[in-house]
Amino acid sequence: MNRFIHLLVLASLVLCQILSLLSLSSSTPLALKLDSSLYVDKKGDFLISPNNVFTAGFYSVGKNAYCFSIWFTKPLFNGDQTVVWMANRDTPVNGKRSKLSLSKTGNLVLQDADQDLPIWTTRTRDVTGSAELKLNNSGNLYLQSKNEQILWQSFGSPTDTLLTNQPLTTGTMLVSSRSRTNFSSGFYKFIFDNDNVLRLVYSGPKVTGVYWPNPELRAWDAGRSTYGFGRTATIDRFGRFIATDGLFFNTTDDGSQPIRRLTMDFDGNLRVYSLDESKQIWEVTWQAMAQTCKIHGSCGENSTCSNEPNFGRKCTCLPYHKMINRTDWSYGCEPEFESSLCGTGGDDDFLKLPHFDFYGYDSLYLPNTTLDVCKQECKNMCDCKGFQYKFDKEKAIFLCYPKFLLLNGFGSVSFIGTFYLRVPASTLSSHTNKSIQKVRETKLNCFGSPRMVQLERIYDKKKEIGSIKLLLLFTYVFGALEIICIIYFFYKTRSTKKFKGYLQAATGFERFTYSDLKRASQNFETEIGRGGGAVVYKGVLSDNRLVAIKRLQEANSNQGEAEFLAEVSTLGRLNHMNLIDILGYCAEGKHRILVYEYMENGSLAENLNSNELDWDKRFEVAIGTAKGLAYLHEECLEWVLHCDIKPHNILLDHDYLPKVADFGLSKFLDRDGRGNSEFRQARGTRGYMAPEWFFISVPITSKVDVYSYGVVMLEMITGRSPQGGDQSGGGYERPMVRWVREKAGVVGDGYGGKDNWIDEIVDSAVKGEYDKVRMGNLIKVALQCAEEHLDARPTMSQVVDMLLHGDDGRS
Ligand SMILES: *[C@@H]1O[C@H](CO)[C@@H](O)[C@H](O)[C@H]1NC(C)=O
Ligand SMILES: *[C@@H]1O[C@H](CO)[C@@H](O)[C@H](O)[C@H]1NC(C)=O
Ligand SMILES: *[C@@H]1O[C@H](CO)[C@@H](O)[C@H](O)[C@H]1NC(C)=O
Ligand SMILES: *[C@@H]1O[C@H](CO)[C@@H](O)[C@H](O)[C@H]1NC(C)=O
Ligand SMILES: *[C@@H]1O[C@H](CO)[C@@H](O)[C@H](O)[C@H]1NC(C)=O
Ligand SMILES: *[C@@H]1O[C@H](CO)[C@@H](O)[C@H](O)[C@H]1NC(C)=O
Ligand SMILES: *[C@@H]1O[C@H](CO)[C@@H](O)[C@H](O)[C@H]1NC(C)=O
Questions:
Q1: What pLDDT is recorded for position 382?
Q2: What is the whole-number distance in angstroms between the Cα of residue 326 and the centre of ligand 4?
Q3: What structural domains and CATH numbers belong to the chain?
Q4: Which of 112, 126, 160, 644 does the annotation list as catalytic?
Q5: Binding positions for ATP (predicted)?
Q6: Which helix (H) or strand (E) holds 632?
Q7: Residue 424 — φ and ψ, nearest 5°?
Q8: Is the minimum distance from the CB of 370 to ligand 6 under 6 angstroms?
Q9: What does the pLDDT read at residue 200?
Q10: 3-state DSSP of 371-429
Q11: pLDDT of residue 451
């Protein structure tokens, strides 16, 4: 018996070898010749440009759904691929037996499995009998006949992207994709309009309109000419865009020659991206709209728009409203309450939304009005949905604008003014703590792979031909051999290892045994951190990966276990470049251990006094930490608070880029904020804790992390510890924060400090220059974060926005 198994194993190994040799020898072709095909299910069936920059082939856009596409061969740092062209974006084909064929006659045909009619074709005809499909170094896929004549080229039918030197002309346009992950045609177009002017147009399900250049301007006032000859627009390799309507611009990196693309993004903005090849990221080097909230069709009625840190805008329903169409923001939101606003109005109250504005649709303008009068005026009107109330500094009076339609909503901390939303008093009293930041829209692809979209394509299974049956038979036999082989090796080598539990299946982490980790850490020898009921050790896994091993203390094993499971399940679903990655865990007897990626440069706390961490790196730490926290708070399905932001929990990788660590204390808040009550037990570290921890009546929200973030940033800038100095003021306001506030001369919204207040605040022990404007901005943002009252603090994504775009969200 034993000998028989050996034989089988040997046979399957030989088969393995033969197969791998076979697959190696079929290298990627450089051209597709007449009467041949590229198959969706044949591995490595691609055309690659001679310089290896571009690849053409079948690209997976969903489960069993493929589009014939061109993309940049090299993936971005996060593994994402950048697609620049698609043949069949609106009708993906099956993942089996679909093919792109160049027929004998020179027609290029894309065929879905078993369907007779082609999905897409170039309708070309080659008379020379020697046409070839090639992908050139510019990313152009072209069909060329023997006499050098180009029969068809992908440059002539762009989808949403123009590559360097690719012209946009009459009859072509860029059409955005539907969303970040759905490549189907979206609502935004970049076209030559009827009057020869290049425009951005929104044509959505309900409304259509031009939004760029500013539709209120005549073409020539916007610097455009209507007398275009020939209608062409291109961007050259130096980053200069030139069009026949007089539009020209240089990218911010003009002159240099990186890889660029001009893309009509799904959010309605037209952007030029340049590839930073060292980091493998796309940098925006030009964009049409500085203020994405001004893009038409942005958010619809009863919703507001805010700038999203990483990419464009974010729509949010007003409190007590819900999205009308879950897939499309342009439908807007409808109230969840019974809106019988007419009548006495006695039953209505107002929800205060600071820093929100709705442009236009005023039914009245009432200068020099008190808040009570303004409220009464609104109640008296049947169609008043709420009002804008703001202070006019020049005249020193309050202005009141009742509104009959809530469109073009916009939220930005820099906006001084408050919107009062009219809501039935009964609704308002039944949900006390609701604030607008809690009503974020659920992101569809929060966790996991963005391309795991279900899109079933059916095809007739009955038509299987003989050769496939044979192939299947072979596969079965081979598969059986393989299974025997695996089982054999499993028992031979790992007979001691138990099967892994369901937790791994659920979370996808590696489960380690206690002895594995004991070995990896050399019996828990090198301690690299401590806190939160745990000690962290350095370790080396058997595959030589450096890891941080966090061992929860056995003493409080009851609490420790709950903490542990919370951390495992929280971490299992979070995935962001500014959050620490978890690699695995161990739950064996009393032992509760987590295994994290190792961070070469320790924590921010260890680096505060280091000159390695210069000001540029400190700005990166500020932005990265804010992005990580913004993701925790807002991007995902659940609301996750950290509750213990301090320099020890901000770790630095080899480039000194920050990752937020230690979610041991974090806990889910449900989206209504109902989870608050059990959350009262104070958490965190003295010195960084927000005031509301000390007041039972104030709810605990994501603003506690914002506060701690503000304190940490001020500590990083000033080099002063938040607890330094006396606490005799009796207040929870840290002396350090107060000191900065005094130096900056904060009065109301202004900064009246001495001319050199920034220099006085900034830690002089840190060597090197810093950008004054950036520093001033960072200090202001940090001070806003460390405001005593939680409503005065921005959200984390607003922080990112302010750090990236200066202090004003508007353009
Ligand atoms: C690729 O094709 C385009 C369009 O035919 C052409 O302008 C460009 O010069 C070609 N690029 C290379 C590197 O051959
Ligand atoms: C993309 O959006 C279109 C239009 O809404 C829809 O029909 C299609 O199913 C979506 N595709 C995927 C993969 O979600
Ligand atoms: C773009 O750069 C070119 C030279 O590289 C210069 O002549 C031109 O004035 C620049 N255009 C703008 C709008 O800055
Ligand atoms: C939502 O919008 C999509 C895309 O425009 C549309 O296909 C769908 O029918 C809409 N659903 C509802 C309920 O209106
Ligand atoms: C927006 O809300 C108002 C009530 O505040 C409601 O009358 C209106 O129908 C809503 N708009 C949409 C598109 O549902
Ligand atoms: C505003 O109203 C108050 C009281 O009605 C009045 O005393 C004041 O002069 C007004 N201010 C202006 C600028 O009209
Ligand atoms: C930070 O990491 C880099 C790269 O691993 C290393 O060369 C450097 O010595 C580290 N600095 C400190 C202070 O550990």
A1: 84
A2: 8
A3: 30-157 (2.90.10.10), 161-290 (2.90.10.10), 301-443 (no CATH), 500-598 (3.30.200.20), 603-809 (1.10.510.10)
A4: 644
A5: 550
A6: none
A7: -60, 140
A8: no
A9: 92
A10: HHHHHHHHHHCCCCCEEEEEEECCCCEEEEEEECCCCCEEECCCCCCEEEEEEEHHHHH
A11: 27
Report which bound ligand comes closest to the CA of 240.
Answer: 3
Strands 260-264 and 248-250, bridge-based pairing = unpaired
Ligand 1 binding pocket (C-beta < 6 A) is 136-138, 140, 142, 153, 155, 165
Let me know: does 720 contact 742? Beta carbons within 8 Å. Answer: no
Closest CA to 691 of 801, 796, 795, 792: 792
**Probe residue for ligand 1, chosen from 70, 135, 165, 237 as the CB with the greatest number of ligand atoms within 8 Å:** 165
Helix (H, G, I), strand (E, B) or coil at 473: helix
Q: Which atom of ligand 5 is nearest to the CA of 331?
A: 13
Model-level pTM?
0.52
Active site residue 644: yes
CA distance 703 to 794: 8
Contact 539, 521 (CB under 8 A): yes
* β 534-540/527-531 pair status: antiparallel
Q: How far is residue 107's CA from residue 166's CA, in Å, rounded to a whole number?
A: 23
Determine the pLDDT at residue 414: 66
pLDDT of residue 498: 33
Using alpha carbons only, what angle is made at residue 193 by residues 188 and 198, rounded to the nearest 5 degrees? 75
Residue nearest to atom 8 of ligand 6 (CA): 368
Please give the biggest Cα pair distance in the chain. 98
Is cis: bond before 215, omega within 30 of 0? no
Report d(CA 608, CA 614) in Å as an integer. Answer: 10
Q: Is there an atom of ligand 5 within 6 Å of 303 CB?
A: no
d(CA 681, CA 669): 14
Q: Does the beta carbon of 223 lie inside 6 Å of ligand 4?
A: no
Beta strand pairing call for 409-411 and 303-307: parallel
Closest to 85 measured CA to CA, from 188, 152, 163, 151: 163
Q: Which ligand is nearest to the CA of 139?
A: 1
* Annotated binding-site residue? 550: yes
Q: What is the DSSP letter of 166?
A: P
State the amino acid at position 405 in one-letter form: L
Q: How many residues does the chain have?
A: 811
Q: Whose Cα sits closest to atom 5 in ligand 3?
A: 255
Strand-by-strand arrangement of the 366-367 sheet? 348-354, 418-424, 386-392, 397-403, 366-367
Pocket residues for ligand 3 (CB within 6 Å)? 240, 248-250, 254-255
Q: Determine the pLDDT at residue 473.
A: 56
- Crossing angle of helices 703-718 and 772-785, in 10° steps, is 140
For the Cβ of 461 lying below 6 angstroms from any atom of ligand 7, the answer is no
Phi–psi pair at 270, nearest 5 degrees? -100, 125
Task: Average pLDDT across each block of 10 residues of the chain; the chain has 811 residues. List them in order.
Answer: 52 50 50 91 90 94 92 89 94 91 92 87 89 94 90 95 94 90 90 89 74 79 78 92 91 90 91 90 87 73 74 75 81 80 68 80 87 90 90 86 85 78 78 38 29 35 45 56 51 36 46 88 87 82 87 59 61 75 80 86 88 89 92 61 83 90 52 38 70 72 88 92 57 73 70 74 85 89 89 86 64 31
Single out the residue of 444, 200, 439, 204 nearest to residue 315, CA to CA: 439
The SS3 of residue 488 is helix
Q: Which of 607, 654, 655, 659 to mutate to test the pocket of ligand 7 (most atoms within 8 A of CB)?
A: 654
Residue whose entry in the numeric block shows the structure tokens 């992207």: 161
pLDDT at site 49: 93
